[in-house]
Amino acid sequence: MSDENTQHDDDQHDDGRLDADGIEIPAGPAAPAPVDPSPADGDDDEVRRVQAALYARIGEQSPEHRLSATRRAVELLGDPHLSYPVIHITGTNGKTSTARMAESIVRAHGLRTGLMTSPHLVSIRERIVIDGEPIAADRFVENWDDIAPILEMTDQELTAKGELPLTFFEALTVLALACFAEAPVDVAVIEVGMGGEWDSTNVVQSQVAVFTPIAMDHAKQLGNTVAEIARTKSGIIKPSSAVVSSAQTPDALAELERAAELTESTLSVEGTGFRVTSDTPAVGGQLVSVQGLAGTYDDLFVPLFGAHQAHNAAVAIAAVESFLGRGSQALDEDVLSEGLAAATSPGRLQPIAQDPVVVVDAAHNPHGARALAETLPVAFPSEHVVGVVGILGDKDARGFVRALKDTVQTFVVTQPPGERALDADAFARIVVDEVGPDRVVVEPALDQALQEARDLADEADAEDAMVLVAGSIVMVGSVMDLVHAEGGTK
What we know:
about 500 residues; nucleotide-binding; tetrahydrofolylpolyglutamate synthase activity; alpha/beta; 15 helices; ligase; six-stranded mixed sheet; ATP-binding; 19 strands
């Protein structure tokens, strides 16, 4: 998605502001006002044709535990994924933000980049980014039309063997890998869809494997313990590669250490191999200092909010150090600063409207909700937060609410689009059980829930009342679409 509205001009600075204790918060480059949140302009009928063809396949939340199907498809295409090096990223939370920061840093070094992330917020083209921009509509369509016969051939072979045809995510992965080769890119930063070992992106031969914090999520697919989930995710580590990891629980770290040893790879872990030495809130983000694998970098402006984003930035820096110099050569600090300052992570604590302020965040599990609860009061101080919350049926709804119950004053309970959504009434019973009936309003229709939340914020006895939308990435994207349809800001 286009970053033109959210990048920062180094020649423009705000004057800073005071926090609740009267302490001045330093100013980074000028903070963006709420912007038109739609990255999807230009999705014509041909893009929608491709999207429909992808969505006609088995959904990405029902992945096949196999690599053979994707391997066969890329083999028939001539192995396009072997024409560029890869930084491969997995984890439970923070994957997309870390991937976007790593890609921005690499691009600042003059390399042409590809970036694959998921899911998308508004446009499916957001998932395939070339040189910092969503792939152009015509290239998206032309690449699809080029590979469609190969996908059909692969489907026929699979069906003949009694297997299911390529899934949505398998076909999308093949498309992304082909798009990167066609561009062509110098390096691809690729986010795992789910898990790692059998995720279709794992056909790549990565030089760097990156792990963001690993926690419980997708238990049905990945395992019932953090150790089991970490074992599945550790499958992205390739022989003799560089492995970079966030700080992990002992169980998760043990699995990464085992996998690194078996593959004769090097493992660098936050806290011992590299670390955040300081992070200070700044207007529009924060100033972060990092002791990297090979260099020390002070007061880097990161235009994302929260301590968790400071740690994501440290992981991204270590990943790029590992990629560009095997962890033994420091990055040029000016280039690093440029790359980080240009990084964006849409849908992550992002203001999209004002009067009242509306902020969206992709938190959708307890781990993400705790990070949101810690960050929101610093980034957007408010005496009254009205939360528009909806969640998918396979998530820990109660843990999500518990993490936000002291941050959100009023909950407007709704439900995300799609069949996987937890029914609003069922979710409301959980929310009422956690926070009491006086703090809960139920509105299943998302557009009406957003309007109800805005009205409640306007009526609240607080000048800085705001609306927070969280619980589902799909829901966040739909809200961004709603605000875009009304002109971006209100």
